[in-house]
Structure formats: C-alpha cells, structure tokens
Amino acid sequence: MKYLLCILGAWFGFANPIYQLPLLVLVFPLALTALALEAGSRKQAMFRGWLAGMLSYSACLYWVALPVHNFGPLPWLLSATCPLLLGVYLGLYTGVFALAVNWAGNRLSWLFLAPFAGLIWTVLEYVRAHLLTGFPWLTLSQAFSPWPMAIQSSAYIGAFGLSGLLVVISVWLVRASQAKRALLPAILLGALVVGVGLGRMQQPLPEKSEVRVAVVQGNISQSRKWDQKFQEQTVRKYLDLSRNVLETNNADLVIWPETALPFYLQEESELRRLVLDFCRKQKTPLLTGSPGYKQSDGTTKLFNRAYLINKQGRITNSYDKRHLVPFGEYVPLGSWIPFLDKLVPGIGDFSPGQSSAPLHQEDIALGPLICYEIIFPGIAQERVSKGANILVNISNDAWFGRSSGPIQHWNQAVLRAVEQGRYLIRSTNTGISGFIDSRGRSLQKSALYTSSTQIRGVRLLSERTPFSEKYGMLRWLYCGLAVVFVLITLGSKEKPQYKIKKI
Questions:
Q1: Could you say which of 6, 321, 382, 419 is catalytic?
Q2: Residue 336 resides in a domain
Q3: Residues 179 and 85 in one domain
Q4: pTM score, two decimals?
Q5: So what's the pLDDT on residue 343?
Q6: In the chain, how many domains are there?
Q7: Could you say which of 6, 329, 371, 373 is catalytic?
Q8: Is residue 235 part of a domain?
Q9: C-alpha span between 278 and 280 (Å, rounded)
Q10: Strand 364-370 to 359-361 pairing
C-alpha cells in the first residue's frame, strides 16, 4: 500500500497529464519514511526506499521515452526502458534516504529525527545536481511551483532547502501516529512556510526601469526543423511573427528559441542576411538560438549557441551552452564507448562553452540559460553573480511531445526566478513560452504546440536575494549540519524497535 502511496503522491504532486495537486507530493516522503521505519533491517530499508523511488520517478518521467523513440533509433519496447533506467538511478537517492531514516529512527527522538531526515534529503538533492553531470529534475519543492506563495522560502534557503523543510513536515506527520506531540511542530513549520510566502508576495517589487520584451514561439515541427528544404520557411515564419507583433507594439528586445535558426548564423548566407536586415529595419535587437562552431588545429568544435544581434543588424555577442544534455547533445565517455551513439540525434556532438558572462544590450544584462540549464540552481546563480538583471531561458521542448515534460520544465524555471529574485523570460519552439516575475508568478504563458507572440514589460532588477548572496555558504551549512546530526546519531544509544501504525 505504501508503494502505491509513493507513486500516487509523486504522480499527482508533480506535473502530470491528468491533474496536479502540489500538496499531495508530501505523501511521497511521508510514505518513504513509513517504509523505512517499518523495515526490519538496514538492507531492507534501503531496498524499500530504492524500489519506491524507482517506481515513482519512472512514472513521473514516462515522457523521456518519447524523444528516444520519435527522434532516436530505438523502438517503443526499448524506448520504454529509458524512464525506467532513470528511475533505477534516481531511486538510489531515496534508497539512501530510507537507509538513513531507518538507522536514525531508533536513536533519535521524534523531535530530532525530522530535521535529520530533512537535511539528508537536502544534501542528496545537492548531490543529485552534481553527480554524473547532474540531474536535479523532480526536486520536491518543484511540485509547489504552481503555487508561488508556497515557494517564497526558496529566496532565503533555496529550492533544495525548501525540499528539506517539506520532508521535515512529512516526517513529523509520520511520527504523529505514535507521538501526538509531533503534530504541533509539523503544523507550525507549515504555517511558517505559508507565512513567509504570504509576506513576501505582498511586498511590492522594487521600482526599477522597465524594458519591453517580445517572445516568439514558432511551433516548428521537429521532424522538419533540420531539413534543408524547410530552412527558409522556418526563418521566414519567425520573421513574419516578429514583424506582426512589432507592428502594433514597441519592443526593446525580441527573443527566439533555442536553435530557432537551423543553420550557421556565423556564416555568410542569404538566410543570415534576412535576419540581420530584420533587426536593422525594425531597429530592434534580437536574441536567437543557432548552432555555432569553432575551428582550430584542424579540428571543429560544435556549440549550442545563443546570438545577440543589435538594432544596427550586427552580431555583438554570443553565449555557448555550458551544461550539455548527456546522450542528447554528446555521448559521455564517447572515446571509450564509440559504439554508443546519441539517443536523440541532432546535427552533431556539441562541446561545452566556456563563458558565463551576461550578454549586454544597453541597460539590459541578459543571463542566458539554454534548455535544461534552467534546472540547475548553480548555473542561474552564476549568471546573477556576474551581473545579469534578467534571466532568459531559450529551449526547444518539442522533444517532449504533448506530455508533462514541458510543464515540469516550466516549473523549474519558476523556482530559479524566485531563488535569484529576477524576472525570467522563456522562449521555446513549441511551448511553454512566457514571462515569470521575481516572485514566481506566471505573468503570461503560451499553450503547447501553437504559434504565438507575447510582449510584456519586465523590470531590470539588481538586488540579490539572501539565497543568491549566501549561495556558497548555504551549501556548506547544509552539509555541516547534516554531519553534526550524523555524529549526534552515532553517539545516541539504539532504543527498542520503533513501530508505526499501518497505513
């Protein structure tokens, strides 16, 4: 029964194709804790945690099979194993969590077990964001992105820290079945999270200069995107959509998605001339995605690049994506396993970029984040620490199909906006595109698989959130506190086996 609760709590708590109720995500760590405390041994606890996590994450990441089958080399039977393999990996983290809870369950009182478990969960989310190139998707706090009021604490303690608080609440709720006193701190901590959210949502945003930005969503079919016969048609569609929105609106910047231009913009061509002429005639700067390359010593390196073109029609700056998608944009250990091709083929194997400096256009300092770079708090932190006053996420979520993948991606962007206290603009090929303010409110957002244009004023903010200012210190603080609790647990005597009421 608890395995089913884990799956349902994760499925309906995170974005899904049926109905999302964020509060239900608390059932996920709650049921995991119950499974761990009921286990007869450490080994059994870890296995239970791994199995519950594996099933839950696999169900939520079902959409990973879509790009692998639709655009890759694998049939449905093999594609379906991809979310399962991801679940097997992510389940290791819930397995370690369950092991830790089981070990500490008979050593710590109900009061201290919950913060111990919360710190372990927070540290594990940090580890998940870095180990094996990192994959911090479906972090616990992500589920609450549709409720901006509930995630304001991440401006102080980060999304991973908020995940830890949610686990603390869940563990106290589990303990309340045995020790009724545990219910009170769970309620108080929940009220604190809500109170911080309400207070911050009511604070007026800083009165800063505002710029108007237009976002274009071309809705270009992925099957035709790289077909040379349709290159001009693709470019002209983006140009026409942009002209239409600029006919009745003034904009300080137009943004197109990741690889909106399916050719090398750095090379002289008729298509390049069309794009540069557009900026010059409209007297409007453009940020757009296009592949790029660099040649040296007889070798060619490909880059997933964002170009900034000024209103005089000159390319003034660019950003090369630094955190690439394993097996999508490159093959890890490709020199060791050359027979393993990319699961989702594109135009070639990309190399990571080097610079993370903002792209400047007059007063605008753009912090570019390409595709799934938005899911990493550290990458957004790097952009803001170097002076970005707006975060921009360009992406091509057409790979995900009509699934919950694009919604889960958008929810990650909401967290980055709150953590960094910046307006965040998303431009994607097929959706979801739109505007998020520094409190995580979705100001505008497009529907999936539609051609659309949106234009809106955004504020150029320079203030740093406490999380942004203390980012490095917070990471070590969480790890240090976790070590302290581990040492306290090691020094505590094991009590008689703890049992909870059957759920």
A1: 321
A2: yes
A3: yes
A4: 0.93
A5: 52
A6: 2
A7: 371
A8: yes
A9: 5
A10: antiparallel
